[in-house]
Amino acid sequence: MPEKIKSSFGRAFGAARDFTIAQRTLAVLALAILVVAVVGLVSWVSRPSFAPLYSGMSSADASAIVDQLRSQGVPYQLSDGGATVLVPEAQVYEQRLTAAAAGLPADESTGGYSLLDEMGVTSSEFQQDVTYKRALEGELARTIGAMENVSTATVQLAIPEDTVFAAEKGTPTASVFVAPARGKSLAPEQVEAMVHLVSASIDGMSPTDVAVVDQSGAVLSEVGVGTRSSGKQSAEYEERTARAVQAMLDRVVGVGNSTVAVTAEMDVSSSERLEETFTAPENAPALNESTTTEEYSGTGGGGAGVLGPDNIAVPNGGTGDSTYTSQDATRNNAVDKTTETTTRPAGALTRQTVSVALNADAAGAGNTAAITTLVAAAAGIDPERGDVVEVERLAFDTGAADAAAAALAAAEAAAAAEKQGQMLRTGAVVAGILLLLVLGLVAWSRARRRRERREAVDIADLELRPVGDGLDEFGPLHGRDDGDGLLEPVPTRPEIQPPTPRFSSLDQRRAEVDALAGADPDKTAEYLRVLLAEDRAVRR
Fold it and tell me: Disordered: where is this region (predicted)?
């Protein structure tokens, strides 16, 4: 090992030996923290960045891909409940090509219009109809499954059979089963999009003919109602009306001085009415008119005689002239025909009641009649429909409000105390870290000063004295200061001839010192330590 490195290590170990117990503890802690930080930094820098290889896969595909990655020794991670596989970013494209060569992920969807390719020329009409319906169901399920937050989807269609013997054709219906992705839920807008997608794909199907159910059994869209059930429609209407009335009363009687309750009754049934009206236009010409006339005239023969008694013919009757006339007229007039179709959707409001309670102590709650008129106008009250509005002035119970205010104040105080405690704990941790840093800096500074004081000095700059005199004046030679004023005794000094106190030249003094060091290096070093200790004591 080079001498410079050995001397550096020697100075470091020498400085460490002079540390107190507290300084040594801080040094060990600082060294441990430094090692942990370096290891963590190296681990973080060397850790590969992962990117998705495939996402939204089925369990079978994910298992097959994981087995392939294990066989190749490629590190991987799973997320999204096992539906997403992540690999190092540098290997994403390579692993995709490898998986594609192995036929992964497998395309499990065999439905859709691909079913029509498997039909033969000998398929019956029934087979063709069923296959076509299955193809539609598969295509719709695949499209819905591609939506956001949808894991899987299944579509079932009920299409009535076309026949010439039915007076009226039935309405097609559809049912959709969806399974949201793990931890996700479907928004009402997404459900409406599914309903309109399915209804627009089938001829004669309306959005109210589609039912949507999720994997938990909740009905998201009812047949005949749509995406919003009657209960939801009533609740939304009641909430909207109550909010409008409450906002008006808050401006009139003040906030907290009124309460509003709205109850609405809605008709969940839907109906369709067809009405035809025929009217005759005035002063309108006939569409077509025809007249047929028949007329006959001539002389007719007399009547023949009849047999009398004895079978003797009676003489013939006389002859005369005759005339025949017949007339037939046909006229087709224009007739106006009016056809009116009225569709009544579900969710029509049939009746509502609004009740308002006013605080008797409120300043603006005196004119009850005026407030009743305002409430009726704001809620859209229709007396002919049977709507009812009731407004009463009552004494409000403020106990619950006061208790809630007190609880809120207590909660705020507790939150403030918790925040203050958290700040104190954080401050204590920060102060402890700063204290450790300060102590470490102090220890490092002291060690540095000691190393600087123990650096090599020029022997010529030291004031040499006779060895005997120096030792008699300062007592026995010392090893190192323990901090309590007592010095460890050193072995008996050797008999060394002290140099001449006075020198004539600098070179002569150096030569004498070299000779002294060559005679007994150890004792010379002890002597130099004593001189350095004296110099340090004088400086302090």
Answer: 473-518
